[in-house]
Amino acid sequence: MNFNALWAYANPRKFIETADKVLPALSVLAALCMGVGLVWGFFFTPDDYRQGATVKIIYLHVPSALMAINIWLMMLVTSLVWIVRRHHVSALAARAAAPIGMVMTLIALITGAIWGQPMWGTWWAWDPRLTSFLILFLFYLGYIALWEAIENDDTAADLTSILCLVGSVFALLSRYAVNFWNQGLHQGASILRGAALVGDTEERMSNVYAVPLFVSIAGFVLLSLALIILRTQTEIRARRMRALMARERMN
Amino acid sequence: MPDLGKYAGAVLSSYAVSLLLLAVLAAVSIRRARRMKKELETIEKKMKNNV
């Protein structure tokens, strides 16, 4: 695969043209996968023998938590590209992705709390994974606020990139916290684990739940991708508009 | 509608809140995209006419 071809999309015009072409199909596919995954999970899966009907929350909680972490990691990559290669589109892609990641983190926190109340007997516990997720949410808020607070686009991109690097520690921590500390309430990874995927563990999730879950995850991934592309396109246009208005003021 | 038993409140509120948040996010993103496209076109047209 020729990764060098990707640099062509650092050109704002090329990015906007490509986005216009791919967005309709991507949006339809995202809606289809999400619709099928959630309807399947909600209407056509049985209650779990221990969790009862609350098992249906998994179709929202797991995909949103996955996206909360992965969107921050995507922001890390695009921030690094900005720092190293100074491509505006990559900095704007990170800016565009942040509100999506923030909403995903919020959904993961809310659905986790709603599930935790009947299952753990509490809405919240200062468990390593829960706490690192809360910190990740605060990082998202701080990141968005920093972009809004600084008028100069390049300075904002520089400072938010540094913040993104720091926040990545918590993004990774929220992914691996269950492996570092065993004292928390949150159970260990049982879905996207190599051994679980090949069905080689005692805690392997039944296919009755796993298949609609994977469809739902695909839906969340595609929705996030579509929104990131759309919002990046908007940020490119907003930046151009600011530049044109500044030029007009100078004239 | 499946029988959710005593967990109906928890399951339904999870779905309601999550879908609402996703719908608001999508609606705000689409609305801003349309507005920005229109505003940029207006400014570009205006600047072209000034040249």
Note the main attributes of this structure:
heterodimer; A: 251 residues; Four Helix Bundle (Hemerythrin (Met), subunit A); 7 helices; B: 51 residues; mainly alpha
Descriptive notes:
The complex is a heterodimer of chains A (251) and B (51). Chain A is mainly alpha-helical. Chain A has one domain: Four Helix Bundle (Hemerythrin (Met), subunit A). Chain A has helices at 12-43, 58-85, 88-120, 128-149, 153-180, 194-197, 207-250. In chain A, helix 1 runs antiparallel to helix 7 (207-250) and helix 2 packs across helix 5 (153-180). Chain B has 51 residues and is mainly α. Chain B has one domain (5-50). Helix content of chain B is 84%, strand content 0%. Chain B is built from one helix and no strands. Chain B has one helix at 8-50. The model of chain B has no long low-confidence stretch (mean pLDDT 93). Classes of the chains: A mainly alpha (251), B mainly alpha (51). Chain A binds chain B through residues 38, 42-43, 47, 52-54, 56-57, 60-61, 64, 99-100, 103, 106-107, 110-111, 114-115, 117-118, 223, 227, 230-231, 233-234, 237-238, 240-241, 244-245, 248, and chain B through 2-8, 10-11, 13-15, 17-18, 21-22, 25-26, 29-30, 32-33, 36-37, 39-40, 43-44, 47.
